[in-house]
Amino acid sequence: MGKLSVKYLGMELKSPLIVSSSRLTSTPGYLKEAEDSGAGAVVLKSLFEEQINQYIHTIQPSHSYPEADDYTAYYVKSHSVDEYLTLIRKAKELISIPVIPSINCYTSEGWTDFARNIQDAGADALEINVFLLPTDRKKSSAETEKVYFELIEKLKKTISIPMAIKIGYRFSNILYMLDQFYMRKVNGVVMFNRFYEPDIDINHLDIVPASIFSHENERRMVLRWIGMASAQDIRIDISASTGVHSGADAIRYLLAGADSVQVCSVLYDKGIPFIKKMNSQIETWMDKNGFSAISDFKGKLNYRNYKKPMVFERTQFMKYFSSED
Ligand SMILES: Cc1cc2nc3c(=O)[nH]c(=O)nc-3n(C[C@H](O)[C@H](O)[C@H](O)COP(=O)(O)O)c2cc1C
Predict the structure, then answer these.
(1) pLDDT computed for residue 68 by the predictor
(2) Which residue, of 42, 48, 138, 230, has the fewest CB within 10 Å?
């Protein structure tokens, strides 16, 4: 076991740093570069639920409304699903670190049986990236949350490889959701995804995409929930995502209790080999602080272990300035 090794989803990773799902995990060349740079695992770019549903219809064409079939769209989409399965197989031949495919979804309808194809292609685990934007004002939070549970239950019946669920932070009660995931035997949770958000260009009076890349200061909200979640007495692995731009950022999430740390934006900026630098930053910090294994400090500053756990519950700045500080 190396100094940086960690356990995530029942697998041993040689580093806590995982290259998260994006274009940077979409080709065998990038995946090899990630392994050579010292990544602990890779999460492949996501396949979309819509692509899978199109694929299923292509191989089992619906005869009820043949005129509605758009052959070109079907071809393109089914082709990309086959390419995805080929990418998993190639990755498994080429690299020895765990390969975690990913599916973007927002319903539990239709596509879930396809997860077996991903397992059969050799995936070590599956990451499900769920994003449900509640836009129906007549639908309660509980109804929306039910979709997550149905989805998990279906997938758990379909596959036996470990499963992580990548979520956003817009839940009424994140810890309740984690508890529900745990009860349904989800192995890990990725906290959090960073979604497309609209912005406004005042010069052109137009809606434009907000920056797709994160900044270091986006860590703040993630840190709170990792610190709280890792202190619960349930065993669900936590992979931190958003705002990791250096080894120091990864250390912060590990101290808060993350089991692994995912990296994306900084690799677009500095290149995949930057992982090597981040690993060495973590090692240098460990040496300086007398830690010989990640487990020596993981969770040391979480809600359970920190001397003043109330800091995790603090929401108002008023308290920050009060005399008890
Ligand atoms: C260009 C780009 C493409 C992405 N594509 C996906 C994707 O297909 N699936 C997914 O789960 N996350 C995707 N993400 C989100 C990242 O995996 C990651 O969770 C997010 O960027 C936060 O991490 P970071 O702060 O290190 O960038 C993408 C991010 C970027 C910047």
Answers:
(1) 47
(2) 138
